[in-house]
């Protein structure tokens, strides 16, 4: 089963780097959306989740806020 993983990041967020490194270490493919470089995506993200912080991840329609490896793995296993 193919997992749909999107990571929303900014250029200066250390937790964004941690999430991307974690996903790479686990060999999980993901699409990155840098909201600092794509303000429209940032606005859409805030409207969708009500959260302004990054990283945020969408995994198969479920949202994860922040660097939370346990929740990431749980969502990928379902």
From TrEMBL:
GO terms for biological process: cell redox homeostasis. Pfam families: Glutaredoxin. Keywords: Disulfide bond, Redox-active center. One of its GO terms (molecular function) is electron transfer activity. The keyword Disulfide bond applies. Residues 5-64 form the Glutaredoxin domain. CDD domains: NrdH (cd02976). It comes from the Bacteria. PROSITE patterns: GLUTAREDOXIN_1, GLUTAREDOXIN_2. This is Glutaredoxin family protein.
């Amino acid at each position: 089963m193919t997992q749909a993983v999107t990571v929303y990041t900014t250029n200066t967020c250390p937790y964004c780097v941690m999430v991307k490194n974690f996903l790479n270490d686990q060999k999980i493919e993901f699409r990155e959306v840098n909201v600092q470089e794509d303000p429209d995506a940032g606005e859409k993200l805030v409207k969708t989740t009500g959260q302004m912080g990054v990283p945020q991840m969408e995994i198969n329609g479920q949202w994860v806020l922040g660097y939370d490896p346990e929740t990431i793995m749980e969502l990928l296993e379902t």
